[in-house]
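Hello forum,

I keep getting stuck at the same step: I have a sequence, I want structure tokens, and every attempt I make locally crashes halfway through. Rather than fight my setup again tonight, could one of you with a working pipeline run this one for me? It's a single chain of 140 residues.
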Amino acid sequence: MFYSHSTGGFYDPSIHTEIPNDAVEISREYWMELLNGLSAGKMIVMNDDNYPVLADRPGPTPEELEGYERSWRNQQIAATDSVVTRYRDEVERWPTLLTPAQYIELQTYRRVLRIWPVGGELPLSEHRPPAPEWLASLPQ
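Reply #2:
Ran it on my machine without issues. Output:
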């Protein structure tokens, strides 16, 4: 059995007539170990001896983490759009779903979301602005 780093493939000489020049020979047992590692989320890299070994996959980059947090923020703002619209519609015909204080708290939360990543807080999700506690109890 052979492994080629350039193609990321395994080659069995009893099946494959052409094997890449960079392919290194591995035992069938090691081939199974590599396959099991791939199935478990590992990746194959070449060590200093140009031999395939399993390694952990790198985590998300800071840019990817920042993208996740910006997406979360945008979803939070969108999720409260209907509450703001409903309050504005109801304001002319008292009573409203929200009290004036809740409306101010909601708008403050939305403003904090819009300016939220400040001071290097991204991509740390533990710095996410908390929603008002009563927000989750509103009817949809």
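The chain has two domains: 2-55, 62-137. If your local run keeps crashing, start a new thread with the error log.
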